[in-house]
Amino acid sequence: MYNAYFRFAESPFSIAPDPRFVFMSARHREALAHLMYGLTGEGGFVVLTGEVGTGKTTICRCMLEQVPKDCDVAFMLNPGLSAVEMLGAICDELHIAYPDGLNIKGYVDRFNNYLLKANASGRRTVVIIDEAQLLDPKVLELLRLLTNLETSRRKLLQIVLLGQPELVALLERPDLRQVAQRIVARYHLQHLSRIEVSAYVAHRLNVAGCQARLIPESLIGALFRYTSGVPRLINLVCDRALLGAYVEGKQTVTAPILRKAAAEVFGTSKSKNWKHAPAIAAMALSVLLGAWLIWKHGVGEPAGVPLKAAAEQAADSAKPDVAAAAVASSSDPGSARVVATAPRAETAAAVVTAPPSPPPAKAAQLELPKHASAENSEAEAYRALLVRFGMIYSPHGKLQGCAYAASVGLRCFAGKGNTEILESYNPPMLLYLQKDSERHAVVLDSRDGRQATFVVGGRTQTAPVDALDGLWTGEFLVFWRPPPGMPKQLQAGASGAPVRWLGDALDIVSGTSPSQGTERFDAALEDRVKRFQAAEGLDPDGIAGPLTLLRLGHRVEARLARARAADGAN
Known about the structure:
CATH class of the largest domain: Alpha Beta
Shape: flat
Oligomer: single chain
Strand content: 5-15%
Mean pLDDT: 76
CATH topology of the largest domain: Rossmann fold
Number of helices: 22
Distance between the termini: 46 Å
């Protein structure tokens, strides 16, 4: 009704799971990485849980748009089926022929034959079940039996379960312990933080074709309180608020309009507020404890910054790419620039590697495969690196390496240095090593002080950073995902959302209270950029180019990671 009034190309806050509107917060990136692992793993169960409306189905549909050509997927929307009905539905999805009146054994025999033929032709089979908390325990046990079919190298069936938190309780039942033991990766998708809510709203409006702040930043805190950061509830309240603004002839949503919209969605604003009073009290306590931990460990505030700023950072510890900061570049460091902080690789790594056996503890040196071709080594490293971003590396023609990354919405920065330069970038990173005239590409997956985790030839190894001495050529690649609409560089005179992101990033790095989001690259912002560049040893020209934005992104993520750790200690 209000689309023409606000000049939307389409409704920005529809609750339909449209992948074009998906907002990839740090949590959603990790969830997608889990599901992508479900397409590329070696069999078993992958479990994704989350509260109602947090975006599980949307993330799943986003994954389905990236299904490799060699993968066959059965997507089950109705979990309330008997064992026979479930087998029949899976066969229908995979186009497996069967006669009427077939019993369980007949279905299983036909399904096993299908899996063997698919494996022989180099194809994978994945079964995805939505609302899996409604599965009958007998059906779950049957699904486990289906995963028992395997070759000497891998299982032939991967099963992905999407469900509400009740699924966790279901899988903890003693009679389902064999199912629980076959879960190779699991993740719980939580609601958005306050800062993520701001970025989420801006993202939805931008996709719908609107650049204006129709819901002012000053109202985001109230929106977060009303919705608890649940995306579906945010959509409902924002949709009703825009309708209210349209009815009243307003160009932006006001506080009374937002309050009335929330009351209409939840019944009464009073009951909604009282309903979440315990959660609000717990959140306040968490913020205070998080702020104290930041101060105690020397993470947080510089001289002259009030403790409130550190508390705000702890409370909003999961700030996403699009709201956090800008990082920019391309394979040519002097030509292209893109924004976004590097993903939380230290968390995603544990998700997607899922090695069949524990990695060797603190190995003294890296074990490099012998006689591995440089081409295969590089392809394996790209594959391990891109899966951290929820992407499957499937190169073809000229679309390889950085060119392929660009084709799936990522950007690539190439550089050269020594081990000290690694402190300036976030893992994961691709490093080139040389040993006995053989060139190897490995992934630096995470780093904790002088100890690091590497992915070599598809396997995880733990070794000191010093293990790179004498092996590393100094060459490296860094990938990251840009938000839409970012220009090639930011400098004085620029305006709009990218400038806001730049200001937000500088706020976080400096430890100051978040500003109200300037959208004008003025003299004051240029001076702040120069001061940051000087502190980083870069040319202080005041232009937010690739190296400046890349370093800024690293500092933002490092600070937010410390805030997350402090918050998690509570």
